[in-house]
């Protein structure tokens, strides 16, 4: 805190307060209004990352809530150390929405309709990124922050896949079966759509992954097996073979077409 870094115009930027802490970087608010600074850990600073963020900055990406890199940051010696990004607000998706107690704390009046509206808000931002030929790669729910059902912030966008620069994030639950175990890869639109389907499932069945995973289950094996525990309403009667308890109840409230879409995505013979 209090350290000074420099933008591409050699203007000083003072780091004021930690806002987001990741394994490979810390994002700070700064003395410049409306600007945050993401500073990489020493191990994360390399020519690949510098080249990637330079390419991202050269692409005109502008959308409210999309915290896209705006400039390179260097230290006093001229070494690449990080990027400037717009500020973010809100609570991390995986904490505020995927955990029932937190959902009731942050959004106590929300109904299923509000979750649907939130899903649409998130999907519209992803649709914009796709229109710019940018893929999220392996989705990280912690990097989506929720203010309301109509206002979200996408942070850590430097992890996204752009052209030949892949994401370096690996999350088993969001990785398609055919890519399990491959830590670094270039996503296709098809593999991206799988990750998006997982995200939508988690939003509409708050915090529930498509496959049963517990402390005794290998998550990667569960994804690869593709044994989806919920029925396709067009093939089975509603509720047949579905998980018991609240998950069965929540599944029963999805539309037949949506159930079918999830089934065809996550079931082995889909």
Provide structural commentary.
This protein has 270 residues and is an alpha+beta fold. It has 8 helices and 11 strands. The strands form 3 sheets. It has a 6-stranded antiparallel β-sheet with strand order 1-2-3-4-6-5, with helices on one face. A 3-stranded antiparallel β-sheet has the order 7-9-10. A hairpin with a 5-residue loop joins strand 1 (4-6) and strand 2 (12-21). Helix 4 (112-131) runs antiparallel to helix 5. The termini are far apart.
Strand content: 15-25%
Instruction: Let me know the average pLDDT.
Output: 90
The tally of helices reads: 8
Multimerization status: single chain
N-to-C SSE string, H for helix and E for strand? EEEEHEEEHHHEEEEHHHH
List the main descriptive attributes of the protein structure presented here:
8 helices; 6-stranded antiparallel sheet; 270 residues; 3-stranded antiparallel sheet; 31% helix; globular
Question: Could you give the topology of this structure?
Answer:
Blueprint: E1 4-6, E2 12-21, E3 25-30, E4 36-40, H1 47-58, E5 71-74, E6 80-85, E7 91-92, H2 93-96, H3 100-106, H4 112-131, E8 134-135, E9 144-148, E10 151-154, E11 161-162, H5 189-204, H6 219-225, H7 246-252, H8 256-266
Antiparallel strand pairs: 1-2, 2-3, 3-4, 4-6, 5-6, 7-9, 8-11, 9-10
Helix pairs in contact: 4-5
What is the compact description of this entry?
The chain is α+β, with helices and mostly antiparallel strands.
């Amino acid at each position: 805190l209090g350290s000074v870094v420099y933008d591409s115009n050699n203007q000083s930027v003072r780091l004021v307060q930690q806002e987001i802490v990741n394994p490979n970087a810390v994002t700070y608010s700064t003395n410049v209004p409306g600007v945050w600074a993401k500073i990489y850990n020493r191990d994360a600073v390399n020519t690949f990352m510098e080249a990637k963020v330079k390419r991202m900055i050269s692409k005109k990406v502008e959308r409210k809530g999309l915290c896209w890199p705006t400039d390179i940051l260097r230290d006093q010696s001229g070494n690449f150390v990080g990027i400037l990004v717009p500020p973010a607000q809100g609570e991390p998706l995986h904490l505020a929405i995927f955990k029932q107690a937190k959902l009731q704390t942050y959004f106590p009046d929300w109904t299923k309709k509000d979750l649907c509206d939130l899903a649409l808000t998130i999907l519209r931002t992803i649709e914009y990124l796709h229109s710019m030929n940018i893929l999220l790669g392996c989705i990280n729910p912690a990097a989506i922050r929720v203010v309301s059902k109509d206002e979200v912030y996408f942070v850590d966008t430097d992890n996204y896949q752009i052209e030949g620069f892949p994401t370096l994030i690996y999350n088993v639950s969001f990785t398609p079966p055919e890519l399990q175990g491959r830590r670094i890869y270039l996503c296709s639109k098809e593999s991206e759509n799988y990750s998006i389907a997982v995200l939508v499932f988690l939003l509409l069945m708050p915090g529930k992954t498509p496959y049963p995973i517990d402390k005794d289950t290998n998550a990667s094996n569960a994804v690869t097996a593709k044994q989806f525990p919920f029925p396709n309403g067009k093939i089975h009667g509603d509720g047949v073979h579905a998980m018991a308890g609240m998950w069965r109840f929540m599944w029963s409230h999805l539309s037949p077409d949506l159930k079918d879409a999830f089934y065809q995505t996550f079931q082995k013979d889909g």
